[in-house]
Amino acid sequence: MLTGFFSRKNTPASQSIGDAEYTVLDTELTGLDLKKDSIVSIGAVRMQGARIDIGASFYRLINPANGMDLTSVLIHGITPSEVEQKPSIDDVLDELSVFCGSSVVVGHFVSLDINFINKELKRTGRKNMKNAAVDTCKIYEWIKSNEGSFSRHYSARRDALDLFSLAREYNISFDEGHNALSDAFITAQLFQRFLSSLPGSGVKSIRDLLKIGKA
Amino acid sequence: MTVKEVKDFLSNIQPFQELDNATLGNIAGAVIVEFYPKDTLILQQDGPPSDFLRIIKKGGVKVFIKPDVNEEVVIDYRSEGDTFGLLSLIRGDKSRANVKAVEDTVCYLVTKESIQGLLDSNASFSEYFLKSFLNKYIDKTFSEMHSKSLLYGGGDKLLFTTPVGELASRTAVTAPNEISIKDAAEVMSKRKISSLVLVDQDNLPAGIVTDRDLRDKVVSKGLNVGEPISSIMSVPLMTTEARDYCFEALLKMIRYNIHHLLVVDEGKLRGILTNHDLMMLQGTSPISVVRDIETRQNIEDLVPVSKKINRIVHLLLKEGAKAGNITRIISEINDRLVRKILEIAERKFGKPPVNYCFIVFGSEGRKEQTFKTDQDNAIIYEDPKTAGDGKKAEEYFKGFCNFVKEALVACGFPNCPAGYMASNPKWRQPLKIWKDYFSTWIHTPTPDSLLFSLIFFDFRPVQGDIKLAEKLRSYLNKTLKNQNVFFARMAGAIMNNRPPLGFFKSFIVEKSGEHKDEFNLKFRGIGPIVDIARLFALERGLSETSTLERLHELKDKHPIVMELGEEIEQAFEFISLLRIHHQIELMEKSLAPENFINPNNLSGLEKKSLKESFQLILNIQEAITELYRPGMVNQ
Q: Would you tell me which CATH number, out of the four given (3.30.70.2640, 3.40.50.1400, 3.30.460.80, 3.30.460.10), belongs to the domain B288-436+460-470?
């Protein structure tokens, strides 16, 4: 029987967002087509409430089941030869599930990452991820809409919602360059900013958080 | 990679940059990142101890204490690369200050265990942290100055680094104090010693007899050598601790004009220290100058001796003396010179009709003179009983003070351009008039009265009836009580002289003129600290006049000094030493010793230390503004 997000109890909905455990997650994919493409790498950072624990990080390159699309090589800089020697997705997902435990999963457009993870889980006959998951992009949109009347227009501006634009807006420094772990780290810092301001807007428990940002 | 990012950051900041790669990697891997929106109170005074050392990755914090509900004293502003929370982390009791984010701030948190491990295993790391940060910079700067200056010769036995115990190797010869003078002299001659310690029945030291005693008290007076030695021995015995540095012993010898000190170690007589020992230690000695002064009987003979005083500054610097110690010794010597001149004057003009006290003020009053500076002196005399007595006193002191002024000029102390000298009739007055002066200055807010206060309130007695000066001091303290308006004006004067540090932590220099690219270190660096110490000391009714003594006394009396006293002292020492060095350099080039320096000529560490010192002054000035603002507005 596997441990981790397949079997453990979820974070209670009543828990305060400042005390909950989070796993901030990012994946690099060979492409965006759920049918054709697959995961190349997974990066994750643990957070204890608003504290990012640098030491508790997770980064694995994966030998994709399907061949790599050369265009995606240009995006994340991982070449086919680099991943050839790497463990298969099955092993990595086991490790990831242990790493995530029962924490709340956080990510930027995290539904995409979860969909790919679930696809792989399903392929090997396992159940979907059970962890509660929130999307930093949705939280951002909610914060903006909550800030004032102007923000209704904000949701239309899709182009400004990518991780790096938000990082810039919140004055988070980062190196350009896609890497699942460094992106997860940027996302974690973004989420950290949100956690500090959300209680002031009435978002206090995991239940509240899921209400505004469920992936 | 994220760990790498943290590691790169840490590898650029003290004291982590001292760590080896693997250790740094371990630390970086265990770091926790926290974010504090602007105005978050991160640590709270008297709150739970911090569990982490926090390193500011981005943003800035304000460290402050709240001595009272409505009072806030800013201790420091810290920014990127600075740390906080260490003290309470190590002591584990409580947070000593409040720390608040002044902008959105990201901190790296290093756990208590990691820090503890580093402190235990890494000497340079613990050295860095266990001393205060500023302290460390200054120590480093001292040694940097030493290594680059030609002034610092070699020499292993140094006045400031040698404990008395190491030098006083000779054991003290003792004899019972009932023996006769003759027997004592025999012991001394047999053992070839210049001093003999007399002990009582319990074998405890009771007195000392030296060659000089035998000469002055026995031979020249024709005393019967059958008399008990106790009749001529010197009491009380002056002692020095074996662990004291030699310069402390030297100061004692100068102060009491003695040449022997008993060296005591844990209450036991360990040996004897003579001025000869000290002279052997250093070749020429400040005490030899003092002895020279003592033997001179007229002004003409004093002049060449006084010239030697400047040389002593060189000598002391060469030995690595701290600025505060140099000025203390110079002040002692100058005092003796002044006393000698007054002694000669009294002989010339006859006994004064009333008791008087010769006081000095300004830097001389604060014992902060280096090279000879303008005269700043005055005379307080006893209130005359009749108008006739008053007339007589006026007549007497007129000639007396003019003589003293000319004598001081001859010995290298120039006239005070503003005429703050006893030769000016305004500044030789009976006690009653002095009290009137002080009271008027305190109660009448004019620019002149404030200026006079700043100069004269640093007065201290040098010669004569010390009680007169003491009475004036206690009158001053009594009159100053609760004079908040006066103190606010004094605080206002402090605000007007800020150290030359710009908003972006760069030095502010003169834009043009003779001192282009320079600033006045005495006026803009030392002056503010002197002013701050004076303000606090007068406000708390202290009698000390020297800045370091004032700060020392204030440590348990004033919240700002309580928190920052040590750092202020160090800043003061550092800037003073920089100034003395600068002046010595100029004098070696036969230039006049002035106070302008070009910060570009300083080393990196000197610059950093100077900036730290200036920043400290600015922070205190800001705290003072807060404390006195209501009064300052009324001006």
A: 3.30.460.10
- Residue of higher predicted confidence among B93 and B34: B34
Of the candidates B2, B34, B108, which has its C-beta nearest A182's C-beta?
B2
Residue from B6, B35, B58 to probe the interface with A (highest A Cβ count within 10 Å)? B35
Q: Domain B2-130 falls in which CATH fold?
A: Jelly Rolls (2.60.120)
Instruction: Kindly list the domain boundaries of chain B, sorted by start residue.
Output: 2-130, 164-283, 288-436+460-470, 484-634
Give the global pTM: 0.49
Q: Which of B33, B36, B104 sits opposite A54 (nearest CB)?
A: B33
Chain B 95-114, residues with CB within 8 Å of chain A CB atoms: 104, 106, 108-109
Q: Which one of A24, A54, A192 makes the best mutation probe of the B interface by having the most chain B beta carbons within 10 Å?
A: A54
User: To the nearest whole number, what is the mean pLDDT of chain B?
Assistant: 82
**Residue for token digits 């230039």?**
B591
CATH class of B484-634: mainly alpha
What average pLDDT does range A10-32 have in this prediction? 89
Strand partners, B520: B596
| CA pair distance B487, B70, nearest whole angstrom | 20
| One-letter identity of residue A16 | S
pLDDT of residue B318: 62
Distance CA B78, CA B57 (A): 11
Residues of A in contact with B35 (CB under 8 A): 50, 189, 192-193, 196
> How close does chain B come to A196, measured CA to CA in Å?
7
Look up the domain containing A116 and give its range.
4-213
Residue A24 DSSP code: E
Rounded Cα gap, residues B162 and B172, in angstroms: 20
Q: Find all residues with CB under 8 Å of B508, minimum gap 6, and list them.
A: B500, B501, B502, B519
Judged against a pLDDT cut of 70, whether residue B193 lies above it is answered with yes
B144 band by pLDDT with thresholds 50, 70 and 90: very low
pLDDT digits (tens, 9 = 90+) for B319-359: 566 777 788 878 888 888 899 999 999 999 999 999 999 99
| CATH architecture for segment(s) B164-283 | Roll (3.10)
- pLDDT, one tens digit per residue, over A56-114 is 889 998 876 555 555 555 556 666 666 666 777 888 998 999 999 999 999 999 999 99
Q: Which runs of E-coded beta strand occur in B102-187? A: 105-111, 174-176
Q: For residue A26, what is the domain's CATH number?
A: 3.30.420.10
Is cis: bond before B352, omega within 30 of 0?
Answer: no
Give the pair of three-digit tokens for residue B91: 């002591």
Determine the average pLDDT of the residues in B159-169. Answer: 68
Amino acid, single-letter form, for residue B162:
T
Residues of A in contact with B3 (CB under 8 A): 54-55, 57
Q: Count how many domains chain A has.
A: 1
- Alpha helices of B181-245 — where are they, by DSSP H? 181-191, 211-213
Q: How far apart are CA B91 and CA A105, in angstroms?
A: 38
Distance from CA of A64 to the nearest CA of B (A): 22
> Which residue in A51, A179, A196 is closest to B32 by CB distance?
A51
Task: Compute the distance between CA of residue B6 and CA of residue B24 in angstroms, rounded to an integer.
Answer: 9
B102: DSSP letter:
S
